[in-house]
């Protein structure tokens, strides 16, 4: 079963600072309810994450995944290259300067190997993604000021 989600939002933060917050992938569990642990295994020549190990629970079942990241000045993309449970997915963040601040486009595709009724999966992932986006906005805004941030 596969599902996609897209969110666009604007934060009143400089694009470079937004990118810095998004590249702090080891801190993803602070804002994403699906991520339990994220560790960077390798970095590219610019110090950005390249190979990442993550433990995720998109709708309750835990999965250990290996992700490959690709980063440019305006885009961070990732794809699952290994999954202990057979899950998968990919996604990206794209940034664009706008008069109101930085526009962030978040796209995610999740593939689950277990049979889940489509409507149940879509509703569950939609709820998780809505929470993650709200938490991410707060994380980016607080990250701008160097504040420690944890979702309670």
SSE layout:
Elements: E1 2-11, H1 15-23, E2 35-43, E3 49-56, E4 63-71, E5 75-83, E6 88-98, E7 101-111, H2 118-144
Antiparallel strand pairs: 1-7, 2-3, 3-4, 4-5, 5-6, 6-7
Helix pairs in contact: 1-2
Question: TL;DR of this structure?
Answer:
By secondary structure, the protein is α+β, with helices and mostly antiparallel strands. Helix content is 24%, strand content 44%.
Describe the fold and architecture.
Helix 1 crosses helix 2 (118-144). The chain has helices at residues 15-23, 118-144, and strands at residues 2-11, 35-43, 49-56, 63-71, 75-83, 88-98, 101-111. Strand 5 (75-83) and strand 6 (88-98) form a beta hairpin. Strands 1-7-6-5-4-3-2 form a seven-stranded antiparallel sheet, covered by helices on one side. The model has no long low-confidence stretch (mean pLDDT 88). It contains two helices and seven strands. By secondary structure, it is of the alpha+beta class.
Radius of gyration: 15 Å
Largest sheet: 7 strands, antiparallel
User: Hey, roughly how much beta strand do the residues contain?
Assistant: 35-45%
Instruction: Kindly state the number of beta strands.
Output: 7
Name the strands of the widest sheet in spatial order. Answer: 1-7-6-5-4-3-2
Multimeric state of these chains? single chain
């Amino acid at each position: 079963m596969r599902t996609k989600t897209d969110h666009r939002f604007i934060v009143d933060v400089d694009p470079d600072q937004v990118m810095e917050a998004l590249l702090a992938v080891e801190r993803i569990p602070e804002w994403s309810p699906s991520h339990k642990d994220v560790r960077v295994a390798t970095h590219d020549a610019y110090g950005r994450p390249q190979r990442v190990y993550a433990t995720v629970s998109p709708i309750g079942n835990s999965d250990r995944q290996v992700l490959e990241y690709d980063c440019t000045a305006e885009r961070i993309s990732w794809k699952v290259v290994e999954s202990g449970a057979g899950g998968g997915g990919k996604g990206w963040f794209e940034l664009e300067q706008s008069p109101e601040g930085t526009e962030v486009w978040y796209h995610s595709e999740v593939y689950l190997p277990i049979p889940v009724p489509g409507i149940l999966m879509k509703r569950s992932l939609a709820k998780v993604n809505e929470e993650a986006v709200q938490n991410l906005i707060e994380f980016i805004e607080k990250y701008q000021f160097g504040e420690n941030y944890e979702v309670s």
